[in-house]
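Hey team,

Filing this mostly as a record. A colleague (T.K.) asked me to run one chain through the structure pipeline before their review meeting, and I want the input and output archived in the tracker in case anyone asks later how it was produced. No errors, nothing strange. Just documentation.

Input sequence:
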Amino acid sequence: MKDTPASPPTSPVTSRRRFVKAAAAVSSVLAAPAFVRGQNLNSKLQLAAIGCDGKGWSDTKEMSTHDRIQHVGFCDIDLNRTLNVKKLNPEVPIYQDFREMLGELGDKVDAVTVSTPDHMHAYITLAAMRQGKHVYCQKPLTHNVWENRQVKKMAAKSGVITRLGNQIHSHEFYRTAVQTIQAGKIGKITRVHSWVGATGHGKSGFIDRPKENPPVPDTIAWDNWIGVAPMRPYVDAGLRCYHPWGWRDWQDFGNGALGDFGCHILDPVYTALKIAGPSDDIQCSEHTGMNDEVWAAQNMVHFTVPGTEHTVGDRLRITWYDGGLIPGTKGSHVPGTRALPRSGSLLIGETGTMVLPHVGAPSIFVDGRDAPEDSLLVKADNRNHYHGWVDGCLSGEQPSDGFDYGSMLTEAVLLGNIAVRFKGQTLKWDSENLKVTNLEEANRWTKRKYREGWEIEAVA
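Output structure:
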């Protein structure tokens, strides 16, 4: 609902019907994305932000620094988390239901940013693309692999400009790593290890649902926050359990440390090596235990992906670690006395090894020497990930890290979380048919059951 005293409460079913009617009314003119349809190249991109605080605020603030965007709508289920955007542009209307916002604003919106919990990414992104809106969506792209495939299909079908919100993709550190690997400075890659210090349930601290369930504040549209997930009672925000913090820990809403950081840390690996195919087997060899509510605190997950021109052999093994687990340097060119960063990647090549910290400058080691051979680095410039997407929307040219690529990264991390549920078992994955071929029980986790009124329709 819009942030005005006169706005009557709107049921989720009513909002959905209104949204569907609005979408149907404009469907006949959606042969091209909104900006291409009705704007000239000297106009500004009319942008709506869905999610306005936390990462939503940083996304909105960064987008606002581009001189050719104009925010026309802000949406957050919690009105108390719209204070920053109100200061940014007091004239822009504020909503608590993105469906109402898109239904009312219609062609006034060219593009949207989606900065919500994981479980709502697909629902919102698909709805926006079906209306011809360009979309910048936070990582991981979706909450499960079936949604991920629908988003990939819709992006291709709609022709809109898309980008995944792993902004370090455009940073000089990651771009330098990519250029160095592709220039062959450490030879072809034989093995990759990637890790993050964060834990699977480190933000909320809960391992089961809290017992106390206070009334929902008038400022929070709790039904809209729950969205596609099964309904559960509101928990006071001060507990940092679901909203606004802690939701990543919970299987219904987030994807733990792997979902949170995998699309960041694995990104330069996939980009540098030009990995273009899906994982064909996945195994979780180690975790600290989990229940049906939250993710495990620590995981070790192994992926096998197709080899490329930048790897040795026709298959490459990538191992992921989180929760404080970290690889050793044995088998690499890094001396055993050298400490690895808290989070990052180890790319072992034929002639050298790259240590790439998460948001840090890469280093190259050769022959076990303690001093890195950083003269081998092929330096890259720094780019603005947000501006690159806006420029793409304005020009009609798709930048790197669109949903075609982002869906591949997302599929990898989501498959890792399926494997976590079957510790010690190697899952054989048929990506074309979205099916685990050797363990039928695992296939229940490729898709979820949607709450009534919040169903996601398959893309034809």
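Quick notes for T.K.: DSSP finds 13 helices and 15 strands in the chain. The first strand starts at residue 45 and ends at 50.
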